[in-house]
Design brief:
Length: 127
């Protein structure tokens, strides 16, 4: 897994933190392996944990505050690759089986650029 240079140590620490939801790590590792094999895409993590203030500044959902999400940079990737990896993840994992319209992976634009957002719920599971 690669980390964004300017915040590399923080991200390495967050990736190793036991508070990070194990299922989101499993999904990101699965997606990264798939992306590397099919698209030669090395995932670049840009965000894991946010403080409440950081999250509020982005008008976000709070899921990063709760250690249940990871963001990957996508701006250097072909749209077909981004869509394919998201499709792979969403076909394999259910975010919350009681709310099938919600996705584990989607493209999101805020902050410095578009990114792929991976999120989990306590009920996230393999389909």
């Amino acid at each position: 897994m690669k980390f964004k240079t300017e915040s590399e140590q923080r991200l390495k620490n967050e990736w190793s933190d036991p508070k990070l939801a194990p299922m989101v790590k499993e999904i990101v590792n699965d997606a990264a392996a798939y992306a590397k094999e099919k698209w030669d895409w090395d995932f670049l993590i840009t965000s894991i944990r946010r403080t409440p203030a950081e999250d509020a500044a982005l008008h976000a959902s709070g899921i990063h505050v709760d250690w249940r999400a990871v963001d990957m940079r996508t701006r250097d990737q072909d749209q077909e690759a981004i869509d394919d990896v998201a499709h792979y993840v969403n076909k394999k994992y259910a975010y919350d089986p009681t709310r099938p319209h919600l996705k584990v992976c989607f493209k999101e634009i805020h902050g410095s650029a578009a990114h792929a957002h991976y999120q989990v719920h306590p009920r996230t599971r393999l389909k």
